[in-house]
Amino acid sequence: MDNIVVKEPSYLCIVVIKKKRNMKKLLVMLLVLPLAAGAQSLETCQQAARQNYPLIKQYGLIAQTAELTVANIAKGWLPQVSASAQATYQSDVTAWPDRMQSVYRQMGLDMKGLKKDQYRVGIDVQQMVYDGGAISSQKAIAREQAKVEETQTKVTMYQVRRRVNEMYFGLLLLEQQIKLNGDLQDLLAANERKLASMYKRGTASESDYHAVKAERLNVAQQATGLKSQRQALTRMLGAFCGLEVTELEKPSETAAGQGRQRPELDVIDAQLRLADARERGLDAALLPKLSVFAQGYYGYPGYNMFEDMMHHNWSLNGMLGARLTWNIGALYTRKNDKAKIQLQRDMAETSRDVFLFNNRLEQMQQNESIERYRRLMADDEEIIALRSSVRKAAESKLSHGIIDVNDLVREINNENTARLQQSMHEIEMLKEMYDLKYITNQ
Fold first, then answer.
1. Where are the beta strands (DSSP E) in 18-172?
2. Domain span at 370
3. Number of Cβ atoms within 10 Å of the Cβ of 277
4. Domain assignment present for 254
5. Closest-CA residue to 405 (of 217, 208, 215, 218)
6. 3-class SS of residue 10
């Protein structure tokens, strides 16, 4: 991770970069740094997390692999050259009939016939002229497979957004809890000082003073635990985003709008295009293929068999030609192959229907949760005002000796709980709103 130090004020950013990985990483950091001087927004953290997540390298690797695969397939148009060497010994060979050999002997000719041991060292060259579209379909299949892998990686990268949401709003909630904890400590400290004064005047017992002090120390211990959780979560968010998290900016309320297609649906579309490419490959496999070839070898026997039957000498031999092949074996499995491709399409469409169904249910659930928090928040202010009034009355009653200190501590805690509930409702409602944006890809 790059070590980045940002010094305030916000209008002057001094950036120290100790280590550079690549220009792309540096560009992302420079885009993030103007906001890093102040509070980091949720969008800033999400953008940084996407660029920092190791899986982002997968995009480049998939593209490179696809290009290499396509390049290899395209080499099918290059001349195919093969070299061979062969030595054989045959049980029988072509020979002159006995009567003809007898006639040749009378004429003074020695017709030896072919030798049973034969040898050749040769080379074959074949050039495809027409392949029925087989190479083109293979290239299309390779590209579509790469797109499927790329969209699957895109789905994983999209899930980074929800993980940032979880940590970001969890950190915001801890910040609110720490703030309210500080307010509670201040309130208890004020009452502790008041009881200390009353104790000195003899209007309050020492146990009352000790009870409030113990409660303040207990709240201080809770603050220590909350700060420890905040530090751990801050480090996690910083490591996940690849930046130093100093202060978070509370997101504003957002209304649900028209979203974009989710990456999961892009995967299904890519799978359907891959099925189409494979079906076109089945059609190409049925077409004939035309090629030209050249063969040459040095050895014995050659193409002039009569000469080789008379003289057992090695010779150079060559052949040029054209070859038309039509393999109808693909017809045997064509029906089943097409049925398998159609099943793949049906499975992809079923996956689409299931995803859209579940997505609609999630949207309904999120909208209901948002409305529930709105209803809860409508009463929070009134509850806090009432709890505050009761707490102030309890402080007055304690001063006049009407109630004991335990009743006061209870009312103080009730007021703090009401304030904490209000903060939780607000932050949880914001989280539900941004989870809805995640669900609809806004």
1. 80-89, 117-130
2. 39-67+142-269+342-440
3. 19
4. yes
5. 208
6. coil
